[in-house]
Amino acid sequence: MTSFSRRDFIKATGAAGALSLAGCAAIGQRKPIARVVVIGGGYGGATAAKYIRLWAPQIEVVLVEPNPAFVSCPLSNLVLGGSRTIDELTTGYDNLVKRHGVQLVRDTAVAVDADKRQVRLAHGDPLAYDRLIVSPGIAFLYDQIPGLATAEAQSRVLHAWKAGPQTVALRKQLESIRDGGVYALHIPKAPYRCPPGPYERAAQVAFYFKQHKPRSKVLVLDANPDITSKKGLFTKAWSERYPGIVEYRPNSELIDVDARTLTLKLLGEDIKADVLNVVPPQRAGDIAKQAGLITANDRWCGVDWLSTESLAVKGVHVLGDATLSAPGMPKSGFMANNHAKIAADAVIALITGREVNPHPIIANTCYSFVSDTDVVHVASVHKYDAAKKTLVAVEGAGGLSSVANDLEGKYAQAWAKNIWADALL
Amino acid sequence: MSKPIHILCAALLGSTLLAGGPAAAEEDTQVRSWAASCSACHGSAGASVGGMPAIAGQDRGKLATLLKEFKNGTRPATVMHQHAKGYTDEELDRLAAYFSRQRP
């Protein structure tokens, strides 16, 4: 059977066999059996696109992404601290195309017509799909901060909560601050993208100040009643490594911002800073809203965690920060990567008529840098609970670092390299 | 006579599906999906691109023992002891078997 040729096969089986073989050959030449469109090339979308092609090359995958390259949010606080550059966190989409046969469409998805199974684009022709994966990340709720309504105000008071030009611009603001100046960071109420991110940012700015502007201050104004992630590890790092630099104030409810005078209007007091960094409250990205995928609090997209299929729109799957997180699940790049793998497996199962995996298991590790080398983590494992019909964090698993350490710093850098490759190379 | 044709067809389809992957006749998609979670640190199918232990192609028995030592706390780790506790022994055995079959 090892050298069984097409001609031998036809001779042996006759016309009926030839017909069947033609069917097989067509699949062998990768005539697609279905088309999946993926909106968004971040940690979720890029990974889903690659894994569908890896696991089912007979399915055509079209990735819609407006940006020329992927820029990682994880590690982007190191750009503020000065130990990494934004270029080092940037990866192109060319390998998804060349190695994995993903069709890249550089455009913005502006509407979904679920009845016609079509995605409308800002510039190009509509894209038809058999299944759609929406991984749009977050949009900012600037309507809750009237003083930041204009583009001009938003360019003075940065969020830097999507890595890229804003990250570089915030670093420039920090470089221009005088020694003795105040950097104020406002954190919105949870849930928001990357729970430990703001506290890591405070440490990174303090790391920079300690070396170059030691009389400057980092003022952390948190709308939450307490530090929402890795509390003990962050407070220890701030007080031991950056004494007199970091000050933390909980319950700092934001009323408005005056972008001209760089003033935060909090409930009960005004705070003026030299560099003001406001992380606005968030919801699922615009296309999720337009497509009617938002099901919770006008903000997040409820999904069936067996398949990540939307609870609102059939045939559409949602990944990453845009989802209504399952209990104990953070909005992280790692989780988005793992959502993508549930989605890829389920989408293939639904297209090919196989049973969807009834028992998905995913995990998370979030590393945070408290200096240029030392890191703390939080980890968790999430399993599907059939009775609760959701993913739940496994009791007794997961946990925190005991103390910030440089071995985990090396692992955090290696994690980034590996997860970028896992999504994009 | 139609049965052998279908078998051959399935075999051809299988080899197409698995091009570049492990040469198993019928892939266990459940363990493949679980293992894909590990790839976020250890590289796609366990083939680390650097800095993380590569687990693809490692000895099945050694990997299973290692994972269980992480789970029961006899082997120190930065984070793997916390992950391993999230899995049953049977799940760890299947993951070890899966990664042992992957190309390093």
Number of strands of chain A: 25
Q: How does CATH name the architecture of chain B?
A: Orthogonal Bundle
The structural class of chain A is alpha/beta
Which class best fits the helix and strand makeup of chain B? mainly alpha
Average pLDDT of chain A, rounded to a whole number, is: 94
Give the strand tally of chain B. 0
DSSP helical segment count of chain A: 11
Largest sheet of chain B: none
Q: Report the CATH topology name of chain B.
A: Cytochrome Bc1 Complex, Chain D, domain 2
Tell me the overall shape of chain B. Answer: globular
> Most extensive chain contact?
A-B, 59 and 42 residues
Strand content of chain A: 25-35%
List keywords for this structure.
heterodimer; A: 425 residues; alpha/beta; four-stranded parallel sheet; globular; B: 104 residues; mainly alpha; Cytochrome Bc1 Complex, Chain D, domain 2; 5 helices; 58% helix; disordered N terminus
Concise synopsis of the structure shown:
The complex is a heterodimer of chains A (425) and B (104). Chain A has 425 residues and is an alpha/beta fold. Helices cover 31% and strands 25% of the residues of chain A.
What does the secondary structure layout of this molecule look like, with pairings?
The complex is a heterodimer of chains A (425) and B (104).
Chain A: H1 6-28, E1 34-39, H2 45-55, E2 59-64, E3 69-71, H3 77-81, E4 90-92, H4 94-98, E5 103-105, E6 109-113, E7 118-121, E8 127-128, E9 131-134, E10 138-140, H5 151-156, H6 165-176, E11 182-187, H7 197-212, E12 217-222, H8 231-241, E13 246-249, E14 254-258, E15 263-266, E16 269-272, E17 275-278, E18 282-284, H9 286-290, E19 303-304, E20 309-310, E21 316-318, H10 333-352, E22 361-369, E23 375-385, E24 390-393, E25 399-400, H11 406-424
Parallel strand pairs in A: 1-2, 1-9, 2-5, 9-21, 11-12, 11-17, 12-13
Antiparallel strand pairs in A: 3-4, 6-7, 7-8, 10-18, 14-15, 15-16, 19-20, 22-23, 23-24, 23-25
Chain B: H1 2-17, H2 29-42, H3 60-72, H4 80-84, H5 89-100
Helix pairs in contact in B: 2-5, 3-5
